[in-house]
Amino acid sequence: MHSVLVVTAVDAERDAVRGAVQGAVRSALPGAADGGPHVIAGGVGPAAAAASTATALARAGRPYDLVVSAGIGGGFRPDVPLVVAERIIAADLGAQTPDGFVPVTGLGFGTDVHVPRPELVRAVARTTGAVPGDVLTVSTVTGTAERAAELRARHPRAAAEAMEGFGVAEAAAAHGTPVLELRAVSNPVGPRDRAAWRIPEALTALGDAFRALVQTGVPPWAEDLSTAPSASPTPPARTTPSSSTPGPTDGSRTRPRSM
Ligand SMILES: O=C(O)c1cccc(C(=O)CC[C@H]2O[C@@H](n3cnc4c(=O)[nH]cnc43)[C@H](O)[C@@H]2O)c1
Hints:
Layout: E1 4-8, H1 11-28, E2 38-41, H2 46-59, E3 66-75, E4 82-90, E5 94-97, E6 100-103, E7 113-114, H3 118-128, E8 131-137, H4 145-154, E9 158-162, H5 165-174, E10 179-188, H6 199-215, H7 219-222, E11 246-247
Helix pairs in contact: 1-6, 2-5
Bound molecules: ligand LNDFFVEH.
The site of the ligand O=C(O)c1cccc(C(=O)CC[C@H]2O[C@@H](n3cnc4c(=O)[nH]cnc43)[C@H](O)[C@@H]2O)c1 has 20 residues, from helix 1, strand 3, strand 9 and strand 10.
């Protein structure tokens, strides 16, 4: 039975997750022909991610209990190879002004942050060793030290950046489904050096994380969340002024079951 949807950007990420969870499900349930999460490659960027996630959620025979945006990403902290998002932030959704960047919420529209359920984030961190932190969604991969510094200044809790999390979270929120984002760091955020991206290592780390989630009985989904508060949790304290107004992403609809 599938109750978790995992959305990656590209086929290589999908295959890394799929291979890991299929092996784990088979060893947990010998003879099982089916089981574990559905894993799809939804395309690169927030728009493709939102469209593919929304389509998958709408077409599902029964509602998913959890959506996970997963893949490789750029890291803001050299000591952190795996990140689980405490907040999923649309870092370039807004307007440039002479006084600097104004997020979309500052313009009076929408939201620029989704806050996954803290108990799910903690459980994933416990199970996989992922470090909780903000994950920025960008439409343009950061490629200069200046841009990296600007993002760090605006988002001091940023641990990673990628290109899909916010799109996946918007689709999940529209369906009232809880969301998580898990990123294995393939490269530092900063001056572009594509040759230095450690993609195979990051894909292995991504697969290891999902294997751990499935093998350990996937603690976050096993918890009874039916009694969890339905309001969006309070985001972590900020150390600098920030735009981000949490969106309704706790997805209080249903209780996540096994992955
Ligand atoms: O070339 C390959 O073999 C290959 C295998 C797996 C993934 C890729 C990608 O290029 C994935 C693109 C995907 O990765 C995220 N990403 C990774 N690093 C960054 C970054 O520094 N800033 C933003 N996004 C990053 C992103 O989500 C892309 O969709 C290639």
